[in-house]
Amino acid sequence: MDQNMGTFKCTGDRTYMADDSRFNYVTGETNDADTPAAWSFANAVNELAKFHYSSLNTDYLKAIIDSWKHPGCYGVISAHLGYRLYLTKAILPLSVTAGGEFCYHIEINNEGYAAPNKEMEAHLLLENTGNGTLYSVMVPGVEVRNWLPGNTQTLHGTAGVPAALPIGQYKVHLVILNKVLGKTTNILFLWQMQMASKTQQRV
């Protein structure tokens, strides 16, 4: 059995790591140059995806890493390490009333090798295009660590708008926020809407 330089010693190790790595951070490095079949580009992509790699040591083995770079293969690998979130669909109103609510329907694909591995929150962020004022509302019930590769995630519900929010044009963003550090890690632009006064009708 291929032990992968000692990583997989027992029957079932590969299956265990494939399952366990769905929810844990995985990093590693290539085999040595004596196992060419293991570090072929096709096999490497398969292994990195199967074991949900988030990072790769590019210092070992440089000969192998360089062999991927020349034909452009490493660009494919680096573009998929970790999680890669892409907005595929967003349904939002063209205008809302200050003090009211608006409905949202958002679909996101993860095209990376791994799911996000930190506890994070999803927020809808309204950005006033005139003065840059920001208003954020948390999207409830979101567990980004379950956003596994190859799956479409759907967020839908209603969000309240403060009555004091100024009338104007607003960009709407979906923000993925690191819950512990309070830092924004991903911002996806969704839509632009008009904020109306209380006396105006919603479209």
TrEMBL record:
It comes from the Eukaryota. InterPro entries: DUF4832. Residues 3-179 form the DUF4832 domain. This is DUF4832 domain-containing protein. It comes from Dreissena polymorpha.
